[in-house]
């Protein structure tokens, strides 16, 4: 895929939201730039200008995408840079953090507690965080043009299913921009409280939108959704909330509801994201899988791993002795079709696009660099 032109910092209504404001253990030594004068500004290339008429410096955190760090630029001149690879110091720091996290995993008692009823912790989350809910995700249509297609006036009957819709941060902007009188938007979440929040939203319109409780890794299909009927499935920061043991079931359920040729629009956390690196002791459930302070779970994906999952390569899952509920060890290499240890179902999806979206956030006052990393993809039902 082409690198996304815009990205979102409003990834999730979660404790991580404020990461950019917090300090990181990574301090970098670089020279402080001289303040720009207006005359200097006029001659600067747009990605470095501070002139509001001329620049790509934006204060709104939801619209980035065009500020590339180039040779000679001062990292601390702006709050954020797009498509930046992590530097060696950060990589080293991350590996140290991961080793520290692995050495102090969540206790078996707590693993069982968190894995046994994850919806309970999301219900608490939606009870406790009402103030942070609604974001205007201006980036949605730009990143997923199919949303523009299904919401045009003459698109005809179209069905969109959002999985793990939460408070409706994705669903309501879609509804607000919709011109298609024949659109049906199903917004599902396994948290009853999240569904209540959506149903009580001022813009909830039961003609066009249906919010329901649904577990994407369960046995049933969503209420009112039949097999092979959905045009687009949206999965925005939901897959990371599942345990690796649930991935296959979720992928198969999405496959069931989609029409042949239907698309999955996917965005989620990437391995090495600041949110992962910052986890302290006692949060590690298993490799790349953590428990947040509020009891919600989060996984950080590798690009190849996502490509394998959505291509139908389901890896060996070996429940460990320490924790039989929701814990697993997965192999990291694709498994051959006939491997007794793994399954391959090549009939599921084509991975049409899959990219890594990186951004460097800068705390200019503290001279700190912080890296965010998201995965974004489009998968098509065969
Ligand atoms: C990080 S939040 C993202 C919410 C929303 N997609 C957004 O971007 O604002 C993850 C959501 O996934 C939901 N979720 C977690 N596991 C789920 C499951 N098995 N089935 C359906 N929803 C689930 C949670 O309740 C939560 O609302």
TrEMBL record:
Leader peptide range in chain numbering: none
Residue ranges with Basic and acidic residues bias: 48-59
Keywords: Methyltransferase, Transferase
Biased segments, Polar residues type: 21-30, 325-334
Biased composition annotated in UniProt, kind: Low complexity: 1-13
Gene Ontology molecular function, alphabetical: tRNA (cytidine-3-)-methyltransferase activity
Protein family membership: Belongs to the methyltransferase superfamily. METL family.
Function: S-adenosyl-L-methionine-dependent methyltransferase.
Name of this chain's protein: tRNA N(3)-methylcytidine methyltransferase
Organism (species): Xylaria bambusicola
């Amino acid at each position: 895929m082409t690198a996304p032109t815009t990205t979102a910092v409003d990834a999730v209504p979660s404790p991580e939201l404020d990461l950019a404001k917090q300090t990181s253990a990574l301090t970098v030594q670089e020279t402080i730039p001289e303040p720009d004068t207006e005359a200097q500004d006029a001659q600067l290339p747009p990605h470095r200008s501070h002139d509001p008429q001329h620049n790509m410096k934006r204060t709104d955190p939801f619209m980035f995408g065009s500020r590339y760090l180039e040779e000679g630029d001062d990292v601390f001149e702006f709050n954020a840079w797009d498509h930046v690879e992590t530097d060696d110091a950060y990589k080293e720091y991350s590996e140290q953090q991961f080793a520290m996290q692995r050495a102090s995993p969540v206790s078996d008692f707590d693993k069982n507690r968190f894995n046994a009823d994850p919806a309970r912790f999301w219900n608490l989350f939606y009870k406790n965080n009402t103030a942070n809910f609604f974001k205007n995700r201006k980036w949605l249509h730009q990143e997923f043009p199919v949303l523009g297609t299904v919401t045009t006036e003459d698109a005809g009957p179209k069905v969109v299913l959002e999985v793990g819709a939460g408070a409706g941060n994705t669903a309501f902007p879609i509804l607000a921009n919709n011109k298609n009188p024949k659109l049906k938007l199903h917004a599902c979440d396994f948290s009853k409280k999240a569904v209540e929040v959506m149903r009580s939203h001022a813009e909830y319109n039961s003609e066009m939108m249906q919010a329901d409780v649904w577990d994407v890794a369960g046995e049933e299909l969503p209420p009112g959704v039949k097999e092979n009927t959905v045009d687009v499935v949206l999965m925005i920061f939901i897959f990371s909330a599942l345990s690796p043991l649930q991935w296959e079931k979720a992928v198969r359920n999405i496959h069931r509801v989609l029409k042949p040729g239907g698309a999955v629009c996917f965005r989620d956390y990437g391995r090495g994201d600041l949110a992962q690196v910052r986890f302290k002791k006692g949060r590690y459930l298993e490799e790349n899988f953590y428990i947040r302070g509020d009891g919600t779970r989060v996984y950080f994906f590798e690009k190849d791993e996502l490509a394998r999952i959505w291509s139908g390569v389901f890896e060996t899952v070996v429940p460990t002795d320490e924790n039989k509920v929701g814990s697993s060890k997965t192999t990291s290499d694709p498994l051959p079709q006939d491997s007794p240890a793994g399954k391959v179902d090549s009939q599921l999806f084509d991975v049409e696009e899959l990219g890594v979206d990186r951004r460097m956030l800068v705390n200019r006052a503290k001279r700190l660099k912080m890296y965010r990393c998201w995965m974004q993809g489009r998968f098509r039902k065969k």
